[in-house]
Amino acid sequence: MKKILISFLLMAMIAGCVQTPPEAEKPEEAPVVEQPEKPVEQEKPEETKYVKKIDETKDWVYINDIHTSDMDFAYLDMKQTILDSEFTSGNELENWFNTIVTYTPEIQDFTINMDSIDAENINRWIQEQVRSKLADPKSRGEHVFKAKAFENEEILSVLIRSCLFLPGSGWTSDTYIYNFDLFSGKTLTNEELLEKVLLDNLQVKELLKRTFDENYEIACDYPVNLTSCYYWQDFDVNDINYNYIFMVDNQLNILWSCSDEQGYEYYKQFSIK
């Protein structure tokens, strides 16, 4: 019996000495670190892919050299007579077109800065013109060869005037206008240029008539009014000289050829859209 009691006591003592294992410690949660927000990537604007330039550091049209002749006093009186007859009461561009004779004639050697076949052909012609005019003896006459350029996001318009003062017989003059697509480097036909400004021949006719109506009084500041211009073509769209269409910024312009009672030709510029 004693042995049984002792056994029970021992078991009770052992049970009392056994400690309940503590609850397993939970691992500490890692602190929440706020991640910086990733900046939203801005979409890069699509790069405009223009035709390659011959010289990327220069404008679409640049001047290489200007050859200037001294005033020829032998024909000063004749020059003055011609200068007096020139139409110089227009805007800056009209006066640029209408000035043929100057006291110091300039031959501009310039380049259309475009790596395309069409530009290459015209640049070759420009160089031929410059060489031939410089080679002409002064007794043959005095040359003027000059250019202006206008551009917008799509089109480059190059305006060229070639004039010759002929002592004893007056002068001759020619106008050349080239419109280039800045993406392809190709010259645009007049119809293609109209398409780019969302016009057709009939719309040009109506816009030109409206422009004439709005500017008629202003245009009559020349000794002879623009009656010959106003009715001469009768707004027949087929008679409009589409070689004289060009862009100034985003406006379509027509250079309109007029003549006075003496038969002197001069130009009026009309912005029609």
Describe what you observe in this structure:
Keywords: Signal. This protein has 273 residues and is of the alpha+beta class. It has a single domain, classed as Heat Shock Protein 90. Helix content is 31%, strand content 25%. It is built from seven helices and eight strands, in the order αβααβαβββαααβββ. The protein has a three-stranded antiparallel sheet with strand order 3-4-5, covered by helices on one side. A three-stranded antiparallel sheet has the order 6-7-8, sandwiched between helices. Strands 1-2 form a two-stranded antiparallel ribbon. The longest helix is centred in the middle third of the chain and has 19 residues. It is globular. The protein starts with a helix and ends with a strand. About 7% of the residues have low confidence.
Structure keywords:
alpha+beta, 7 helices, globular, signal
In a nutshell, what does this entry contain?
Residues 1-20 form the signal peptide. With 273 residues, the chain is α+β, with helices and mostly antiparallel strands.
Termini gap: 127 Å
Order of helices and strands: HEHHEHEEEHHHEEE
Number of helices, counting only DSSP H or I runs of 4 residues or more: 7
Whole-number mean pLDDT: 75
Strand order of the largest sheet: 3-4-5
For the record, the CATH class is Alpha Beta
Reported for the largest beta sheet, the result is: 3 strands, antiparallel
The SS-based structural class is alpha+beta
Task: Give the beta-strand count.
Answer: 8
Q: How much β-strand is present in the residues?
A: 25-35%
Helix content: 25-40%
CATH homologous superfamily grouping: Fervidobacterium nodosum Rt17-B1 like
Number of domains: 1
